[in-house]
Structures are given as C-alpha cells and as structure tokens.
Design a protein that fits this description.
This protein is 51% helix and 11% strand. Helix 6 links the parallel strand 4 and strand 5. It has 216 residues and is α/β, with parallel strands linked by helices.
Length: 216
Amino acid sequence: MRDMVMKLAKKLSVHAAAACLMLAAAASAYSAPKTVLVLGDSLSAEYGLARGTGWVALADRKLKQQKIDAELVNASVSGETTSGGRSRLPALLAKYQPALVVIELGANDGLRGLPVAAAQANLQAMADAAGKSGSKVMLIGMRIPPNYGRDYADKFYAMYGTLSRELKAPLVPFMLDGVADKPQLFQPDRLHPLAEAHPVILNNIWPVLEKAIKAK
C-alpha cells in the first residue's frame, strides 16, 4: 500500500511540474503591449479641439484597428518647450517605462527665438535620457515662419535632420506638411490646426510611427 501511495505521489508531482512548465511558457509567450510615450506641445495636446480629435488619439485608434500591440500615452502639454520636456521626461520614463518616446517639441522655442544650439542640446538630452532607460526615440520636426530671419528658420528646421542622423532616430521632417500652406485648416489664431487637419497630420506621421513601433 505504501509503495502505491509513493508511486501515485511521484506521478502527481511529475504532472504538477509539467503544468508549472506550461504556465511558465504561456507567461513568457505573452508580451504586454508596447507603451509609446508622446511628448509634445499644443500641436499634440489637442489645443482648441474636442477631446479625441487630435492626431495622437487618431493614431491610437488606428493602432487598435490594425491590431498593433501598442498603446499611446499622450504626455503633451500646450505651450511646452524643449526645456520643459527635458525637465518632465525623467519622471515620465520612470512611470510609463515606454518602449518608444516620440518627441514633438521645438515649435515654441523657435517662435521665441531660442538659440538653435540650446534647443538642440535639450532634444539631445531627452534622447540620452530615453536611451539610458531602454527606450527608443522618434523625432517629429517642425518648420517656423521667418520671424527671426530666414537663416534662423533654416537652421532650426535643419536641427531635426542633424539630430536624426546623429541619434540614428526615425524622423518625420515636418508634421504640418500639406497643412501649413492652407489657412482654412487653422483655428482663428492661425497657429493651431483645426480638427479636420489632424488626419492629414497623422498621414505624415503614421508611416514613420508604425515602422518605429514594429522595429525590434
């Protein structure tokens, strides 16, 4: 009788071990959705728009429609500068642990005439912080009107391309391509696009964003 009990116990332990292995395999096979952190200014924060009509919300819906295993966290703030983003990013990285950080900043720096070198240093610092936390970086570029001269505007725009090459980071050269030259697509302040412009903005961003999310 004792031998039978021992054999039964041994058989049960084997089955239990097998079940544990199966559970462990299932757990390792499951991967949580990638978190994509969007760090931007009013152009990404839905300034003057109904909630859910900006490009970030549209991108999140498109991810779900295409069953892409990622979720967007919109940490954009109207009026944000590269300096503000630099100071906020460490806490955001710790909280969300994103796989990808999308940086859409610089327009407010350019409109205020901040030296290009200063804006570039802030963007570089954000990329460095993201990299140290294990996150990849994607940049969204911006053009500004020549309020401070054509040379400044050209250097400002070129800054994004320079950083993209140095960081080997994907870049959307100009998020308002196809929008900036259409006054009818802007709010009365002539700075912020209307909701109907955001699908166009998403079309500019989506190919780069999709590729960056799917990259290993």
